[in-house]
Amino acid sequence: MTTPASSASPVSSSATSASSTSSATSSASATYGDLRAQLDSLTTEAFRPELAEIDQLPTLEIARIMNGEDATVPAAVAAQLPRIAAAIDAIAERAAHGGRLIYAGAGTAGRLGVLDASECPPTFNTDPEEVLGLIAGGPGALVTSVEGAEDSKELAAADLTAVKLTAADTVVGISASGRTPYAIGAVEHARSLGALTVGLSCNADSALAAAAEHGIEVVVGPELLTGSTRLKAGTAQKLVLNMLSTITMIRRGKTYGNLMVDVRASNEKLRARSRRIVSLATGASDEEIEKALHDSDGEVKNAVLAILGSVDGPTAAALLAANDGQLRAALRAAPTPPRTP
């Protein structure tokens, strides 16, 4: 007896559906199994059994343990100083020819990059486009998690395309694990266009460092809370980003000694700081300082040059323009020997 096709169909459909579900489950299991294996191999994800009862300790004791953990971070950064310095010299060389510094990361790493970039204009009077921070998922990800954004290399390439990345620029991929696809994708795309690339991670032998020309791996060890890389790893990344931007600006002549002579006086506190900087740099009287700042449209560097070089505001501006904004070089080029503060 032959079974009608109509009666066999439901059984076949059910079997196919079950097979399909099983296949999807197996695929997902394999994917997450692979990812779990990756995480198990990362120092930043390691479990610390000695802290398994930390939630039972007095608050002061937890704070002491956490403070002790944080104290180990500077030594981990110190171990990478030669690599950090080499990256800075390369970044400064690009910046001297108009290249931009662009950070790219996801989550905490991305937020730290955006923070560092956003502080450069008021501190060093840079154009907002000179130092940029890109975070996976866009500006909204600064305050709200954007699920899945960090898993896309293509998104990183699209974000860099949107800011018109060129070979003159530098891209710093930031990722505590060193495996975040968004950060790796940013570095790979930048390198394919001839841009300078830096990979900042907190695990040794990371894929991010391997993808970049300059790999910086600050190995801070397992976190107090397993896998919470906003802690020691985040602190380490912040310290390195401070160095990358600050020393690059020092190399570019954005400071005079340890004075922020390119500070942008956008509020009362900064206007007061501007006058103090001119005073510290020149030793001039309040009257001289006010006149120099007035004649220099409030530009601190120009005012310092006007006083020490005994020139007027327009001449100070011309000397700085002719010497790539370098105050010491402009002072040497001044018509009269520089005045001693």
Structure description:
It is a single chain. With 341 residues, the chain is α/β, with parallel strands linked by helices. It is built from 15 helices and 5 strands. It has helices at 5-40, 59-70, 73-78, 81-96, 107-118, 120-124, 153-162, 181-192, 207-211, 232-251, 268-282, 286-295, 300-308, 313-322, 327-333; strands spanning 101-105, 131-135, 170-174, 196-201, 214-217. Strands 2-1-3-4-5 form a 5-stranded parallel β-sheet, sandwiched between helices. β3, α8 and β4 form a beta-alpha-beta unit. α5 (107-118) runs parallel beside α10 (232-251) and α7 packs across α8. The radius of gyration is 27 Å and the shape is elongated. Mean pLDDT is 90; it is low at 1-15.
Keywords, separated by commas or semicolons:
15 helices, disordered N terminus, elongated, five-stranded parallel beta sheet, 5 strands, 341 residues, alpha/beta
Q: How do you describe this structure in short?
A:
It is built from 15 helices and five strands. The protein is an alpha/beta fold and 341 residues long.
SSE layout and pairing:
Blueprint: H1 5-40, H2 59-70, H3 73-78, H4 81-96, E1 101-105, H5 107-118, H6 120-124, E2 131-135, H7 153-162, E3 170-174, H8 181-192, E4 196-201, H9 207-211, E5 214-217, H10 232-251, H11 268-282, H12 286-295, H13 300-308, H14 313-322, H15 327-333
Parallel strand pairs: 1-2, 1-3, 3-4, 4-5
